[in-house]
User: Fold Helix-turn-helix domain-containing protein from Castellaniella ginsengisoli.
Amino acid sequence: MRSDDQTTMEALDACFPCRPRPVPGELLQAYLHRVLRANGHSSLRSLHDGESNAVEVRAFLQHMVGLSADELNRLTEPGSDISQAQGDVKILLTPRIRWCPQCVAQEPILLGRWLYRTTVVCTRHGRFMRDECPHCHAPQRASQFTDICCECGASICQPINEHVPEALLQLQTRLDEAFVQGRQHPALFNLSYHQAAKLAHYLGILACSGHQGSLQENASSRRMPNDRVLMNAASDILTRWPQAFVTRLALAQAVPATNSLQRDFGNLYRVLYRSLKGDAYQFLRDIFESYVNAQWTGMLSGRNKRLSEQTRRSHPRMTIRQAARLADATPAQLKRLRPRLQAHEIAFPSGRRLYTLASSHLDQVKGVNLTQAADRLHLPQRRIRGLIAAGIIQPDISPVSTSASAWLISEEHLRGLFFHPTGQKEGGVALHHVLRYWKLSEVEFIDLTKALLAQKLDVVNQPCDDGIPLGLVELSREDLRRWRLGRRVNKSSSVSVDEAATVLGIKQQVAYQLVLQGLLPSHQVLGRAEVRVRSVDLQDFQRTYVSLAELARSRKTSPKALLGKLPCEPVTGPTVDGTRQYFYRIADLMAAEITEK
Assistant:
């Protein structure tokens, strides 16, 4: 103040006999005019020619009203409290003052936090705020603020009888706490009040706005009805954080990728990297960049300078050309594998096309051609072709069905024909030797491979961690002969008793004893002394009976040790009818085991 004359000071002091005390959080200009009105003055300018800025007003109040330093600290001036860019003032402050009708009815005091756009609910009464007279809809002025409208003279204390959502009330409470306490709030990501208010404002805009368009607002959009919608949308996102924010990311990118983050994410990208570019909001960009690396199908490169170096370095997608170099394949091969590799196509306006795929799918690219597959499996190429024709090997690229010049068999399909030992028997013979010297037909080779895959035959090689390729698989000569004979049995109407013994894995004498006992039905060939067993009767015997020796093998014990432990009697055997081997009825064993349980 320029009034240095003691007489002038005394005169001014006499003008303020009534000196109301400020309320915590009261707006500075509103308090000043409250003091002036209490002493019959219309404005401060009529009393002196000093400046009317916040510093001069505080000095005036300290001298003329006798406010202490603590009382001065109770007064707020939002416009000067916002120390950021001028653009943030429009984002954070409302062009119209707001008030809680119930608070004003109790005491016509205007609080500073009511001027913020994020203040749409009075947490004291749990009701929405007003920013216009309920009768004439006129805005109110801080210089004339009372419980009476400054335009029509009606009461402005009529409450708004609308339900306030719980999530919105909770967010408003946290914002008020951050404002009053003046420090970072742990429930608001450790942001200060102004930072949290700015975050809530932009989250509301992202939730309510479209994919593209301007983020600029006019005076009408900064009104109470619009801010209520924005704050309600922001409270919904913050209540379900971070799932709701990730959902917002997914919705923002629900358009075809253009290989441009700014075009694909539109307003969301502009808010995260322009409007909220401060370090305090880095946690938002971390979530966004994690989502980009997990879901976005475009390619990151050096031009994405706004993203962190770690995000660019760990981006999992690559182009078809890059993948071809790493997989030792040609781009043409990989383009034919696009459906299986889940490659994404990006079409540019110029007509150029870019294909990208995830690095996690690169293992599916690794494969071999026909010659390499034959070498890996230790089989002739014609046998590989037979496996392909039978559907046992399914090539990813085939010259037969496409215009490709070479085969491509994935490593995954090839590894399906590597085996691990399932038994230990003497007299093993390798499959490639069987194919060469046993003269297996193409059909027999396919059936034998299917039997190995179904584990109907034991692989008797020495243990190997990497697996044994199909051509080097060793089989027991006895098992192989039995399999071959069993296959012949399935394709013929009857077999000899000797052949039946081979199929059952028993001695010929035991087979003849089973025939004599009537357990294995047989018939004599008309006009000949030969006795034969029908294939259906042989298969029925295998389904009905099981030998003690076979039971002992399956339970990894000896027949002698198992004999006294079985819960039922054998149907034939040395102690039953003098035959050389014990046989049990499978149904009796199952019934006895159920009874014991």
